[in-house]
Amino acid sequence: MTEDEFDAFYASAFPRIVGQVYSFTGDHGQAQDVVQEAFVRAWDRRRDILATEAPEAWIRTVAMRLAVSHWRRARRWLELVRRTPPLPDHAPGPGPEHVALVAALRQLPEPQRMAIVLHHLCDLSVEQVASETGAPTGTVKARLARGRAALTKLLPPGEVGVVGASGEEKEEDRAR
Q1: Burial of 158 (0-12, 13-18, 19+ CB in 10 A)
Q2: Residue 129 above 60 pLDDT?
Q3: Arithmetic mean of pLDDT, 115-129
Q4: Helix 137-154 to helix 96-106 angle, to the nearest 10 degrees?
Q5: How far is 141 from 157, CA to CA, in rounded Å?
Q6: Residue 137 CB-half CA count within 13 A
Q7: Which of 20, 57, 59 has the alpha carbon at shortest distance from 36?
Q8: How far apart are CA 115 and CA 139, in angstroms?
Q9: What is the dihedral of CA 60, 65, 69, 75, to 10 degrees?
Q10: pLDDT above 90 covers what percent of the chain?
Q11: Where are the beta strands (DSSP E) in 3-143?
Q12: For the residues 28-50, what does the mean pLDDT come to?
């Protein structure tokens, strides 16, 4: 089958096969998609398809099989979703301490905020923070100290301990 013959075959058979697959699937968009995919597969075999007595039957068979595969995947997905426990209707929001901490952190310069978050909230070592930020360890330690000092002033006294902002260093920081 030449390219021109294939184009003519496509133009005449596509609407008819889409109608047939639509009757099978009940979804016009899906029918168009699987018939299009069947024609793409047929394009690679266009010389062999002419040798068959019924090229339209070949396209229809491929399209129907693709539609069944889509249906099976959708059914497996639905079964998976049904087995997954539902999420709670209402997830609790952040507590007032967290809101205050985030508000205070937003007032810090970005390098200090990044150092505080990575070190205290993500539990990274000073060396790991230095590696992630590309700053020397001494700079990270300075940013941590300045950030803690600033948080001490920004957070209410009871909430300062959330990230060790009371000036206390982690034991690993003191050891260095």
Answers
A1: exposed
A2: yes
A3: 91
A4: 120
A5: 23
A6: 8
A7: 59
A8: 10
A9: 90
A10: 30
A11: none
A12: 85
C-alpha 118/C-alpha 49 separation (Å) is 62
Question: Is residue 170 within 8 Å of 148, Cβ to Cβ?
Answer: no
Continuous H helices in 26-125: 28-44, 46-51, 55-83, 96-106, 110-116
Which residue matches tokens 């697959």?
21
At 1-20, the pLDDT tens digits run: 678 888 888 899 999 999 98
Q: Give 88-91 contacts, CB < 8 A, sequence gap 24+.
A: none
Q: Which amino acid is at 131?
A: S
For residue 55, which phi and psi values (nearest 5 degrees)? -65, -35
Q: Cα-Cα-Cα-Cα dihedral of 143, 149, 154, 159, to 10°?
A: 100
Measured between alpha carbons, how far is 43 from 9 in angstroms, rounded to an integer? 11
**pLDDT of 163 over the 60 cut:** no
